[in-house]
Amino acid sequence: MKGKKVSLATRAIHGKKLYPYKGAVSTPIYQTSTYRFENSNDAVRYSQGDSSVYVYSRYHNPSVEDVEEKLAEMNDAEASALFSSGMAAISTAILSIVKAGDEIISTPALYGGTYRFFRDVLPQFNVNVKYVDANSLSDISKLATQHTKLFYCESPTNPTVGIVDLYKAIAEVKKAEKKSGGKIATMIDNTFASCLHQSPFDIGFDLIVESATKYIGGHSDVLAGAVIGKKDAIKQVRNVAKYLGGCADPFAAFLLSRSLKTFELRVQRQTENAMKLAKRFEKNPNIQRVFYPGLKSHPDHSIAKKQMSGFGAMVLIEVKGGVKGAAKVCDSLNVAVNAMSLGGVETLVSIPVYSSHVNMSSAELKQHGVTPGMIRISVGAEGINDLIGDFEQALNNI
Length: 398
Ligand SMILES: Cc1ncc(COP(=O)(O)O)c(C=O)c1O
Hints:
The protein contains 16 helices and 12 strands. It is of the alpha/beta class. The chain has 2 domains: 253 residues, Type I PLP-dependent aspartate aminotransferase-like (Major domain) (Aspartate Aminotransferase, domain 2), CATH 3.40.640.10; 133 residues, Aspartate Aminotransferase, domain 1. The N and C termini lie far apart (53 Å). The site of pyridoxal-5'-phosphate (PLP) has 15 residues, from helix 4.
């Protein structure tokens, strides 16, 4: 369907194959670890690269492939690989690019798990990460050496919904490549925006990583991750995935395939709710600051407008009374749920210093722009008046 101007919703609902499985309209769950060969020559064909032969579900599985095809289509990409979690996707994608002695340049405002992977795990394999401030992207070429193999970023960022100027980042990476004389791969975590609101391949990124647990899954009932990109890059990712083993399971794939049918409807409604809530929050006297890329008051609103087609459904507020004030609000909500994660149809709230950024030093919190009074809100698809009323009564308790 690629290139035929088929809408995102249609791609998410149907994927490439409309009725591939005996006419079943929904994707059957291939709950099998292994596959019967017609004869022993099948094993030989597989080893020679014939991908029509199924061998073992850590390598491939039809239910999983259904989602992989849809995600590739939805992102206008050649291929994608599905994983058991967002972190499995991110770590495998990174390890498919870097080896001992290599360096990564990243913006510092990252999901806590990714940041800790960079801080605590990669250095054990002699891979080091250098950080470039999102406001000083021209430093990318200053930091780059012949060992730099990857530029990594997240935008909007978790949890502060900050915006990285993605066009500028790509231009600076190109300059850095000239200086270092080698290819620097570019990878973005597109979880917060999702492909409904941001198309990083159009901007020049090589790979998208995503926690499919969030907007792709959309119902807070499945863990999954995805890496999306060109065929060769995904082949390289799969070669590493085979041995790290973070493959997606067929039932998770079934849930994702079903969730994708309502992806556009859900995320559109959640985004509309987020804008309405953010506007109300701006008027609330118990809120000190509201961060939402769709508000004119957001410092990077103009950059967000340039690179996003919508502003997503993540809102951050900083309330009066520090972490005690934040806890009071979260504990008084009746509709919104005090829980980690994001992207589902139910509104979830979390306090970053107690969740994604727990146990970070004050210097690290400062670098990430996180303060104790912040509440991250993943806006859901509930009735907007119920959400407004719920937050107003909870904020009155400060
Ligand atoms: C932006 C972002 N990236 C990646 C992840 C990791 O995803 P998962 O929990 O599916 O491993 C998360 C999880 O919250 C996230 O918010």
